[in-house]
Amino acid sequence: MRTTYKIILLAAVIMTCAPVSAQKENRKYVLSGTVTDGTGRPVPGAMILIDRKNTDVVTGEDGKYRVRVKPASKEITVFTFTGATGTVSIDRRRVIDFSISGSAAEERKKDAAAKEEDVSVGYGKVKSSELTTPVSKVDGDGNKYASYSNIYDMLRGTVAGVQVTGKSITIQGTGTTNPNNQPLFVVDGVIVGSIDDIVPVQVKSVELLKGSSASIYGSRGANGVLIITLKGHEEKKRP
Question: What is the CATH number of the domain that holds 12?
Answer without folding.
Answer: 2.60.40.1120
